[in-house]
Design goal:
The chain is α+β, with helices and mostly antiparallel strands. The chain is built from 14 helices and 18 strands. Among the domains are: about 100 residues, Arc Repressor Mutant, subunit A; about 200 residues, 3-Layer(aba) Sandwich (Rossmann fold), CATH 3.40.50.
Length: about 450
């Protein structure tokens, strides 16, 4: 069996998927690229081959940890014979009942961000996982671990005249990295080794029913907006979803999901997105008659706002809804077919609510933005377990430009009350309970009202 940081991350990932999905059968994806993207690894051929060999080794190995001729723990897994030949990617790994039982009973949650920061060092990953498990078990009095004991546990090759000093220097360097991402760990040095003090785990443990995902029949759409090469944002997004116990699919590889639709079969119940504002130079001739565009609504070549919008709308389920953050100009711009696209969205009754936001909300731009709420079916649906009313031919406008406060000289923020006010207004309008127009803040418009303003959707109109 191979070793190194990839092996450690792979084993952690397999254990996490088994724990989260409550199953001994771990689906690690149909292709190596899917698993590599989860580990934020590169796409070079030797990495594919290494990881494939590693996963086949994990799928066929038995790891036993013993003390004084007694086995205290083991990892045992198998790969179904029908699932993949050794030369191919093993899409399914089945854990032994014993290991799966130990995993459910003794596993400790770790921080995905820390794993990402330490992924270049197998020793640092080992130390981090060791401390995460060990420090929480210390009852009160500190525990001293000698350098010789640490060397027996962590050294790859403890032989050589200067092996002890070389190991000590390397261990302390790796420990420094670990303590940077695990500040709760209380570890001090004494002349003979390290002293471990009782510490909180890196991630607060939760009861199983709270830490595991609550299964839902709703499919959440995830749009891949990434560069053409592996990216840290993609890795952090994957870890963010995994930490919260949410299933996700960012596509087989990073890429331009407008040009190469990474989710052609997705029909999501909900989509939430914040695509780049006013993107230019994104056009390609193959997008001219793409299936995602409404009839006669090919987005302009110089601005991708309505390309993103239609891309996500096309991936909604028949009763799906979406919320999309765009630049304010999308509510009123007319050049290059944008006005016709907005008109089609209104006339087809996809638009449900428009929210105008104040400026200075974002650190990377000071321009004001807006939220588009769209749905494929205004006739029915539920919200917060309450039945929505029939909203066909009606549109809600909320002007939130006066809400919020200046957090500092350049950044604006909303209070909890501000957020609840906007959300409560939208929900009351959807359910037909307790809603009323408020001059200067909210207005329920008819299709005739919008036609009168030539399909401009700015709430200020």
């Amino acid at each position: 069996m191979q070793w190194g940081h990839s092996a450690v991350l792979a084993l952690i990932c397999i254990s996490t998927l088994a724990r989260r999905n409550r199953s001994r059968e771990v689906d690690i994806g149909k292709h190596a690229s899917t698993f590599l993207s989860l580990l934020d690894d590169d796409r070079q051929g030797h990495r594919y081959q290494m990881l494939r060999r590693q996963m086949h080794a994990l799928a066929a190995c038995r790891l036993q940890i013993g003390f004084r001729e007694r086995t205290v723990n083991q990892f045992d897994a198998e790969q179904p014979r029908w699932h993949a030949a050794p030369s191919r990617w093993p899409g399914l790994i089945v854990l032994s009942p014993e290991y799966y039982e130990d995993l459910n009973e003794h596993s400790v949650p770790v921080d995905g961000r820390a794993l990402s920061a330490l992924k270049g060092s197998a020793l640092a990953l080992d130390i981090y996982n060791w401390l995460a498990y060990r420090l929480r078990q210390i009852p009160g009095k500190p525990v001293q671990i000698t350098w010789s004991a640490l060397m027996r546990q962590f050294a790859h090759d403890p032989r050589g005249a200067h092996a002890a000093e070389t190991f000590r220097q390397g261990f302390l360097k790796a420990l420094h990295k670990v303590l940077m991402v695990y500040p709760k760990a209380k570890v001090t040095r004494y002349p003979g080794g390290l002293e471990l003090h009782a510490s909180s785990p890196p991630v607060a443990p939760k009861p199983v029913e709270e830490s595991l995902p609550v299964r839902s029949y709703a499919k959440v759409g995830v749009a891949s907006v990434a560069s053409s090469k592996p990216s840290r944002p993609r890795c952090f997004a994957a870890m963010n979803m995994a930490i919260r116990g949410l299933d996700f699919n960012f596509g087989g590889q990073p890429g331009d999901t407008l040009l190469y639709d990474l989710h052609p079969d997705l029909r999501a119940d909900y989509v939430m997105a914040n695509p780049p504002f006013n993107m230019k130079e994104r056009w390609n001739a193959k997008l001219e008659n793409d299936w995602r565009w409404l009839p006669g609504c090919t987005p302009p070549q110089g601005n991708a706002n309505f390309a993103w919008l239609q891309h996500m709308l096309a991936h909604l389920a028949p009763t799906g809804s979406m919320a999309l953050l765009l630049a304010n100009g999308s509510m009123s711009s007319n050049p290059n077919n944008e006005g016709e696209i907005r008109k089609a969205l209104v006339e087809r009754d996809y638009v449900e609510c428009m929210v105008a936001l104040p400026g200075h909300l974002f650190t990377n731009t000071q321009i004001p933005a807006c939220i588009w709420f769209l749905t494929r079916d205004k006739a029915n649906g539920f919200n917060l377990d309450k039945k929505k009313r029939d909203r066909r031919g009606q549109f809600l406008f909320i002007d939130a430009r006066q809400l919020g406060y200046m957090k500092d000289r350049v950044l604006r923020d909303f209070t909890v009350d501000d957020i609840q006010k906007v959300a409560g207004t939208f929900h009351a309008w959807q359910q037909g309970e307790g809603y009323a127009d408020v001059p200067g803040y909210c207005y329920s418009a008819s299709l005739a009202d919008i036609r009168k303003h030539e399909h401009v959707l700015a709430p200020g109109r």
